Amino acid sequence: MAESNNQSAETKLSDVHKRIKAAFETFDNAANNTVDVREIGTIIYSLGCFPSQADLHDFIAEVEEDHSGYIHLDRFLPAMTKVLLEHKFPPIPKDLLLQAFEVLDKDNKGYLEPEELTKYMTQEGEPFTQEEMEEMLTGLADHERNVIYYKDVINQLAIDPDM
Amino acid sequence: MGCGVTKSDQFHKHSGKAVTTIRAAVLIQRWYRQYVARTEMRRRYTWHIFQSIEYSGEQAQIKLYNFLGYLMDNFTPSSNERNLISHIFRENDICRDAEWERYFCYKKIEVPEIYSGPHLTFPLTVEQAVGLVEAFRNKKQLHSRYALQLLLETWKLLRMLPNINRISTCHSKEITICGDLHGQLEDLLLIFYKNGMPSLEKPYVFNGDFVDRGKDSIEILLILFAFLLVYPSDVYLNRGNHEDHIVNLRYGFTKEVLTKYKMHGKRILKLLQKIFSWLPLATVIDQKVLVLHGGISDSTDLNLLARLDRHNYISALRPPKKRNQSSASTSMDSDLDEDVWGANRIFQRRASLTFPKPLGARDCFHNRSLQDFSDRIKVNVETELEIRRRRRSAFNAVMKEPETETPTLSFDSVYSDNAKEEWKQILDLLWSDPMAQEGCVPNEVRGGGCYWGPDITEDFLNKHNLQLIIRSHECKQDGYEFCHNRKVLTLFSASNYYDVGSNRGAYVKLGPDLVPYVVQYQASSMIRELTVRQSVGRTERSALKVLREQLFAHKSDLICAFKKFDSENTGVVSLNDWASAVESVMHLDLPWRMLRCQLVTRKTSEGMIDYYDWFNELAIIGPNSDNIDQSLLETLYRHRSTLETIFRIVDTDNSGFITMEDFRQTWKLLSVYLKMEITDEAISDLAVTIDSNQDGSIDIDEFMEAFRLTDKKSRLERGRSMFMGTATDLTKLEGDPNI
């Protein structure tokens, strides 16, 4: 019994390693096991994690090589493995997300105006850049009414369970 | 607060309002950023899928060509298989202009009154060229009489051009450079719309790959040639690797011409073979900027390239014959076609048997039969099938085993060193790709040319006193990409190349300052309205569809691989083992673990995959095939393109039909090539199902259609995926919405 548990732990670890490597390699343009530090966020997100910007900064500080602008797989792999095995940046449950939107929707309209959302996203919390904001509005706004029906949006952009 | 803080209290609106708002904002920002990142990841691997399949297709074509060449060089004269394919290896004779002009004569072709397309008179005027563009925009077709005439004039002009065009910016403001167009007329029209048509004030350079894949290749050629004739000092064409009749057999151009020009298509194709061989190889602007289609290698020498006889290279995939071959070979060399020689057809084929025997170790294969040959080729095919990871392993392979046979073109000992050197120069020019690492290694992914590094670029530019290389050959998401410290610019002008929304196209404007100014665009207004998410989603669905079909086509090998991980025959494997198995069978350098969640949606309660069930889940249906051998069917699915290519080669009169006997021979050929057993009975079953009118001949198109795999899941989506089987699909597409 114990043996098969060990085995499955081993294979699980190997699986985690392979997933991390696969994600990493997608951004390893020079095929030399390094990626640009600016892509680390994307890699971590794509592995199913939901770190905040602050979390990302901390993570990067740990693994970056002397502000070279590059991160090597040798350092990324153990750090990322730990994150995954410990479920350090878990996904946001749908109902919590809904409540967050409802907080911003002060008049309880059931939707947000683009100006409202823009104000919050670019001025509060960990602000979006103008580019990020534009992308969000284009992506989420209803084509006809030009408002964001957040309940629908949350359902549409469902989180991937396998990751 | 108190200790009874529940989740809902986290956002209790009546306390700490400002803090709550911040918390809410952060949460939403985190969530959205994750979503954007996932989308980006999906976009990247979707790209990988298309590119992987594209390059492995190119490699397959070269392997096929190698195989056929090997057959040619080594088979007993009476071999049926050799006869089937010998015609594509017939070299062009040294110019016998009078005979050629007779063969290509358009004068006897009558233009019927009901013809509503443009009428051309020569010498061509700019109004006529512009009129031609308009006509094609309105979906008209140019009559074969005018097409032939236009091509003849083009041929005459091209023969006077040097191998390397040399132009300067001083007489005009800016030169416009366009990359691959691949038969996508709407992109050319879009470029002309945005930038204006070629003129004395608006010179253009078109950097190869005008044809194949897209459905309007011949129209693009006719437009480019028309402007070339009208403005010979302001329109420059470089040859691309697709300006090659061997490549055209697989990628759709041959088929397009034969479909659009049923009576004279063959002649048009023959003339185009000559025209392609006479296309210049490169263009140099202001002695500083080099424009060529593929790239360079560590041995590229512009002086050598300027001196060689480029028209001897009808196809870049085969070196030219030595001029001083025996006189017996001239009759073989002559490729005036059967129509003209009529009754002498049999004489023709026998005459070809005097092909001088190659020297060297391969002598001993002369009298061997096909069966013996298959043992020999088994080894080669096996090594060739080991496709390793693109850059890294290619590099390692060269370092470790310099003599290894790679799946690249082979040099025959018949050819002189000089010819070999020249040939390599041209091959490198048309097929190479840049890489990030230093050095120069053979391009095993495509099967021809090299991968060259930034150090090679540096040396080359210094040696020839240049400052920039502009090349095409590779599709880029933004339509262009700089590399090698911005000394190499890749330019690709076919937007939506892999599928609607996959990429933008771009062209470059170069003024006297020689600073490239890039203009991007994307054909199809439908795309502009899609959000990033939607367009990635669409392309992704397309890519996954293609991938599912490929997986299904490898079912038996995959099941074998799964069984290796499932020693107790439980019928399930872990997710990790699934990925390892798929990786080992498919030989596509893809991130299978990332794709896993898209390709496997059903898992057992323990998180394992029931692999038999998974094939059902792929939802791919084949034709009703109860009476047909399953492994034969699978071969068909897997090697569609190769099979179709061989059919088209075998179809010597380009009629679209082959005899039952040739059909059988084709399968025999394929079985040797793939080193598998195919019984006569199995072939007969196949043939019978498709020869519906029982007249002993088989319609190639009908055959390929009947054995198509379809994806149940996306039956409603007829996106412009080019990999839905073979090039057949390209000419059957619905038109895209106009610009």
TrEMBL record, chain B:
<dbReference type="GO" id="GO:0050906">
    <property type="term" value="P:detection of stimulus involved in sensory perception"/>
</dbReference>
<keyword id="KW-0479">Metal-binding</keyword>
<dbReference type="InterPro" id="IPR013235">
    <property type="entry name" value="PPP_dom"/>
</dbReference>
<dbReference type="GO" id="GO:0043409">
    <property type="term" value="P:negative regulation of MAPK cascade"/>
</dbReference>
<dbReference type="GO" id="GO:0005509">
    <property type="term" value="F:calcium ion binding"/>
</dbReference>
<dbReference type="InterPro" id="IPR018247">
    <property type="entry name" value="EF_Hand_1_Ca_BS"/>
</dbReference>
<dbReference type="GO" id="GO:0051879">
    <property type="term" value="F:Hsp90 protein binding"/>
</dbReference>
<protein>
    <recommendedName>
        <fullName>Serine/threonine-protein phosphatase with EF-hands</fullName>
        <ecNumber>3.1.3.16</ecNumber>
    </recommendedName>
</protein>
<keyword id="KW-0378">Hydrolase</keyword>
<dbReference type="Pfam" id="PF13499">
    <property type="entry name" value="EF-hand_7"/>
</dbReference>
<feature type="domain" description="EF-hand">
    <location>
        <begin position="553"/>
        <end position="588"/>
    </location>
</feature>
<comment type="similarity">
    <text>Belongs to the PPP phosphatase family.</text>
</comment>
<feature type="domain" description="EF-hand">
    <location>
        <begin position="638"/>
        <end position="673"/>
    </location>
</feature>
<dbReference type="InterPro" id="IPR006186">
    <property type="entry name" value="Ser/Thr-sp_prot-phosphatase"/>
</dbReference>
<dbReference type="InterPro" id="IPR002048">
    <property type="entry name" value="EF_hand_dom"/>
</dbReference>
<dbReference type="GO" id="GO:0005506">
    <property type="term" value="F:iron ion binding"/>
</dbReference>
<keyword id="KW-0677">Repeat</keyword>
<dbReference type="InterPro" id="IPR029052">
    <property type="entry name" value="Metallo-depent_PP-like"/>
</dbReference>
<keyword id="KW-0464">Manganese</keyword>
<keyword id="KW-0460">Magnesium</keyword>
<dbReference type="Pfam" id="PF00149">
    <property type="entry name" value="Metallophos"/>
</dbReference>
<dbReference type="InterPro" id="IPR012008">
    <property type="entry name" value="Ser/Thr-Pase_EF-hand_contain"/>
</dbReference>
<keyword id="KW-0106">Calcium</keyword>
<dbReference type="Pfam" id="PF08321">
    <property type="entry name" value="PPP5"/>
</dbReference>
<dbReference type="GO" id="GO:0004722">
    <property type="term" value="F:protein serine/threonine phosphatase activity"/>
</dbReference>
<dbReference type="InterPro" id="IPR004843">
    <property type="entry name" value="Calcineurin-like_PHP"/>
</dbReference>
<keyword id="KW-0904">Protein phosphatase</keyword>
<dbReference type="GO" id="GO:0030145">
    <property type="term" value="F:manganese ion binding"/>
</dbReference>
<feature type="domain" description="EF-hand">
    <location>
        <begin position="678"/>
        <end position="713"/>
    </location>
</feature>
<dbReference type="InterPro" id="IPR011992">
    <property type="entry name" value="EF-hand-dom_pair"/>
</dbReference>
<dbReference type="InterPro" id="IPR051134">
    <property type="entry name" value="PPP_phosphatase"/>
</dbReference>
